[in-house]
């Protein structure tokens, strides 16, 4: 394991110190591990709070700022934050118009955010939750689909709607519509290595890939030989469109996302291949975002997220934002 | 070699197709490999043109747009673009106020941009050049210091000054001052693999790092054992400050840059370590940018760039920009 760290146990805290140093617009509560906006919104607005295990940066800490999240609570690597930290994030973020929890569908996150919501309600906070479950690789699990790239689309669109002064129920309803319109699928060329264990989540031969992998190194649908990007993209596009083809009025938002160790030039090669395969299906993206936004430590590979956006979602996607990882002028 | 590509020979062209698909604000001339703004500036302004070998993305193609470059010409992987392509970029970009070439100090780039400048002058274009040579790892080479991270600072500050309507000579002079105020140094945990050769630029043992590495896998000052991020950062900070300590009136701009395969969480760990070491030297960054901006294919590691900025440079650093890789609201 070769990593730029001090010790496996200090990675999350050290990274938060670096985040705070680089982004004075963020307030970082190091003790409770809560990242919030240094300058609160002018008046009451619905507060967006998200979080989950660390190791997926910039998700979620890099999306705190005007137009997106009000607070994020990062857990240990690949481990949900405990309920009291989530509660602390809700307290830091609530400006009087209620709090929306954006939760990725993993057992620990679902449980801890639910407990935090109960604790927050006891303290008089109004809390609603959007559960993100966009990963079509998992089909028959009792826990349902995993939450991955669609989280970014929910952060961006719901964040913009909250900024416009919409009510909590309205923002939650948009979030659920975005989730329903979103599907994702990922391919890994190499698993990430959790510094706590020092070993990759799984081993692949020099010519093997994991198709349908999760962002914590969860195994996928199958193991295959590495193929040219055009063929891989076709597999991934077909999986994402299966059973969720955008309608004639939809204006798809496409996210070509790197898993952490894949350089941008390869993501652009994948983007070209994805765009071409979508065209073969008659699907024309309205917007395409390319970069590493939902990562899996130093895993190599990519995920594709497609949101069959309506006009409102697209307008909110384009709205101003000012966060470490996503800025819209 | 595991990469998301179609074939080694098509990487640059495929990536340009993806770039064009994701960024409709860019015009891509696929035949001549010139990336320029789809919408030209309203009136004549100094045009910024840069380029160099591919494999360093988002440099330079990701910095084309309002507030930064007017055009970029990407060469083959790690290979300078030929003079006629650079000329084509200058032609595409010149709006009547002259063209500033921003050139990294490598033999091929220097030669080809010089030839292109001569060709452009013959056609009536006014051309000036800023040569970027910030990498202090190279001390005694006849070719001088290599150009790396400072290129981003030159793109951003000169781009903003050009946007304000400054004259060619004024923008060139600023660029030279930024270069003179900038120093960089890089450490690699793994070399990048050029798909044309299929082998990494050099081999490192599981516990080895290359200290003072170049962005084309050029060897550094020495090979060392991997150490904790705090110690590595101290080495790098000390190298960057050696002989170029910011003066009392300077407001340092710091770039903590990933080499391509290093995930953001590690870069934030490095950022914390760099900030702490700078504090020990009495240096307080005015701005810190963290991310992978000047890469070396899928090399793992980081570089540090420090620009001892004056008030004008800082103001220009903060000015609006709207490019694929850097947006300022």
From TrEMBL, chains A, B:
> What's the short name of a Pfam family annotated to this entry?
Dak1
Q: Does the keyword Cell wall biogenesis/degradation apply?
A: no
Any idea which UniProt keywords this protein has? Kinase, Transferase
Give every DhaK domain span: 7-326
Cited PROSITE patterns: DHAK
The cross-references to Gene3D superfamilies, in alphabetical order and at most eight, read: Dihydroxyacetone kinase, domain 1, Dihydroxyacetone kinase, domain 2
Write down the InterPro entries for this protein, in alphabetical order: DhaK_1, DhaK_dom, Dihydroxyacetone_Kinase
One of the record's GO molecular function terms? kinase activity
Keyword RNA-binding carried by entry: no
Q: What is this protein called?
A: Dihydroxyacetone kinase subunit DhaK
Species the sequence originates in: Kitasatospora saccharophila
């Amino acid at each position: 394991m070769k990593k730029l760290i001090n010790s496996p146990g200090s990675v999350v805290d050290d990274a938060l110190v670096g985040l705070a140093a680089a982004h004075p617009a963020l307030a970082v509560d190091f003790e409770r591990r809560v990242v919030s906006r240094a300058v609160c919104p002018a008046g009451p607005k619905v507060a967006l709070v998200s979080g989950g295990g660390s190791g997926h940066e910039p998700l979620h800490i890099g999306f705190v700022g005007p137009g997106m999240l009000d607070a994020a609570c990062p857990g240990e690597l690949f481990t949900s934050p405990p309920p009291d930290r989530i509660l602390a994030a809700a307290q830091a973020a609530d400006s009087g118009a209620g709090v929306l929890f954006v939760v990725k569908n993993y057992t620990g996150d679902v449980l801890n955010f639910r407990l935090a919501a109960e604790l927050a309600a006891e303290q008089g906070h109004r809390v609603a939750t959007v559960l993100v479950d966009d990963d079509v690789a998992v089909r028959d699990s009792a826990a349902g689909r995993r939450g991955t790239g669609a989280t970014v689309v929910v952060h961006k669109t719901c964040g913009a709607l909250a900024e416009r002064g919409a009510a909590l129920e309205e923002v939650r309803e948009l979030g659920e519509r975005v989730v329903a319109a979103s599907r994702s699928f990922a391919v890994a060329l190499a698993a990430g290595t959790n510094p706590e264990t020092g070993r990759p989540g799984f081993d692949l031969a020099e010519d093997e890939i994991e198709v349908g992998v999760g962002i914590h190194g969860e195994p996928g649908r199958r193991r295959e030989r590495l193929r040219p990007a055009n063929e891989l993209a076709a597999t991934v596009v077909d999986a994402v469109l299966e059973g969720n083809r955008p309608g004639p009025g939809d204006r798809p938002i496409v996210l070509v996302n790197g898993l952490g160790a894949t350089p941008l030039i390869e993501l652009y090669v994948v983007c070209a291949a994805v765009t071409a395969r979508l065209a073969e299906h008659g699907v024309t993206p309205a917007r395409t975002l390319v970069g590493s936004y939902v990562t899996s430590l130093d895993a190599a590979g990519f995920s594709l997220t497609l949101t069959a956006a309506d006009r409102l979602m697209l307008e909110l996607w384009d709205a101003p934002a000012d966060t470490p990882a996503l800025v819209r002028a």
